Amino acid sequence: MKKSVGEVAKFLLVSCVVGVIQLVLVNTLYFGLKGRSAPLPAFLRGIFSASAVGEGNDNWGYVLPFLVSNAAANIYGYFQNRKTTFRAENVPKYCLGIYMAALAALILFSTWLQGVIVNAIVSTGKLTALAPTIAMLCANTLQLVILFPLEKFVLFRERDGNREK
Q: What pLDDT is recorded for position 39?
């Protein structure tokens, strides 16, 4: 039990660092690419429709900041958690593949969710400048609830020679 509480605490600490990385990236990219209106490919237009993410936000300038910041921050989190939180060694290479597949699905959903939240906040006319940050924090909370058990019980579970004795 003590070990699990420590892992949760370390995971939360790493998640805070991941959140800061993502916060800096999402805001920098969001405001830097806001004017870009290159259309999304057809398969993404269905997910990131103007009705879901807001009029004028169904383009790469809007979606790319959330995708890139989320992916970069969470890939850092994977390696940091493997090393410090779970002290996992000899992790099979396929675990990174599993993580990337789960992360891709989670990032698509989180990016959509962030778009919906930003659209809802912007439509109120209040807290518009904070909308990307608030949306990111909501999505990160969801990711934390999903990624901790995935990493602890699936990817970095104890294997022979996997943990400190």
A: 93
